[in-house]
Amino acid sequence: MLIAIGSDHGGFNLKEEIKKMFTEQNIQFQDFGTYSAESIDYPEIAQKVAQAVVNKECTRGIIICGTGIGVSIAANKIKGIRAALCHDVFSAQMSREHNDANILTMGERVIGPGLACMIVSTWLETEFAGGRHGRRVDKISQLEA
User: Is 24 strand, coil or helix?
Assistant: First the structure.
């Protein structure tokens, strides 16, 4: 599994914490920026991460901004993306199990690094349940047509 990760300036510090966790747990990742806390426009990063997932360069993606809202909205504009804004472990689990979310978004100004790492771990470990949920995900995809 190769994880695409990115943030704007508002999510830079949390992105760096998650990258540390990835390194400690030997989880492969590709950092799509930003590479400092200097101001940047979040739609650019959201697009880079989303395109890497859609193009199958990366298995899933994680995008972080101040609240997680802006990057979620931006990523969901890319056909084939199901980005889920999660600030608790249960939502992260359900976003994978029921919605087959392929991008996780979070807000650095909303949650701390400890909780964020638990959310990321749960999100990466949870498989899509399929079944009736598959039918629903297919209907979501049809909305893009």
Answer: helix
Query: At 75, which helix (H) or strand (E)?
Result: helix 69-75
Which value, to the nearest 10 degrees, does the dihedral of the CA atoms of residues 35, 38, 42, 46 take? 0
- Cis-peptide into 59, omega within 30 deg: no
Q: What is the pLDDT of residues 46-102, one digit of tens each?
A: 999 999 999 999 999 999 999 999 999 999 999 999 999 999 999 999 999 999 999
- What average pLDDT is seen over the chain? 97
Coil, helix or strand at residue 17: helix
Active site amino acids: 65, 98
